[in-house]
Predict the structure.
Amino acid sequence: MELQELKAQALAGLEQTADLEGLEAWRVRFLGRKGPLSQFLRSISSLPLEERRLQGESANRVKSSLQDAWQSRRESLRLAQVSTSQSGADISLPGRPMPLGRLHPITQTFRDICAAFQSLGFEVVEGPEVEWDYYNFEALNIPPGHAARDMFSTFWVDYTDDKGGHPMLLRTHTSPMQVRVMEKTEPPVRVVVPGQVFRYEATDATHEAVFHQVEGLAVDENITLADLKGTLYEVARLLFGEDRKARFRCTYFPFVEPGVDMAIDCAMCRGEGCRVCSGTGWLEILGAGMVHPNVLSRVGYDTQRYTGFAFGLGVERIAMLRHGIDDIRLFFQNDLRFLRQFR
Ligand code: DAH
C-alpha cells in the first residue's frame, strides 16, 4: 500500500476511535510490530542502499506523525472519560475565580499617611472612640460652657455610675489623644494617632457624621512654627507629589496658639473652583498650630522649657484629593464598583 494512502486511512480510523480500548486496538493495528508500517520497513531491507534510505525516511515520517496523532487522541479521550465519570461533574471546565479582597481606600490612605509620618520619626498610637468630656474638650482648653464647643456637633452618651453622671461622648476629633499621650510620657513626644471620629451632622458631598482623622503631636525643646510647616510640607510632598500647591492660613482652635489651617489646591478643578472645593480652588486638609501653654501646663509640662506643634488631618479629604473623588459618601456605601477601583 502507498505510504500516503496508509497514513490517510490510519488517521481516518483514529477519528473513529471512541474510547481507550478502541484506541489501543488502533495502535496495535497501525503501529504494532505486525502492522503495515513495520511490515513495510522490513520489506525494504533488500533494496539498494540509496533507495532504502529514501523509502525508510518517508516511512519513518509517516510513523512519527501517526504516533503524534495517537498521543493527542489519547489525551482527549482520557479527558472525556474523566470529565464525565463519577458525579457527572465536568472537571475539565475552568475553575471559578476566588474573589480576592482588598483594603478599603480609607484604610490605604491611613497607612500611607502614617507611613509618611513614620519616615519622619513619628510613632503611631491609637485611642478610645468613646471619650470623656474631659479629654475631648476640657483638657484641650475648652471648658464647660465655652463658646468653642459650638465648633463640634457632639453625640453625647448617657453614662452614670454610683458617683453620679460623667459626661461621655463619641469623640469629635482625635485631639483628646494629645492629652492622653502627654499624661503618660515626658518630652520629647512625636506621635500620630489614626482614628474614627463622630459629629452630629447632616451629610453632603464633603461631610459625613462618621469620618477619620490622623492627629499629630510633637513636643520638645525649641520647637517652632517653622518645624510645623516644614514637617507638613514634607508630608504633603510625600502624599501628593512635588507639583502640589499647599497654603497655610491663620485660624482659631482653642488648643493651639497660633492656629493655622493647611489647604491643598483642588485636584478636581486644578484651582479653578468647583463643587468639591466650594468654588475656592482650595481644599482644607488639616488644622494645626503651636500647642497652647494651657494644654501643656495641665499635663504638668514645663512651658518655659517645652513647646510643641499639633495637627489634625482629615483622611477622607486626603483620599478625595489623591484620587479625584467628588463625594465623601461614596466611601461608606459599600458599592464594590467604587471600591474595586483602588489598588
Ligand atoms: N481637632 C481639630 C478638628 O477636628 C483639628 C485640629 C486643629 C487638630 C488644630 C489639631 C490642631 O491638633 O492643632 O477640627
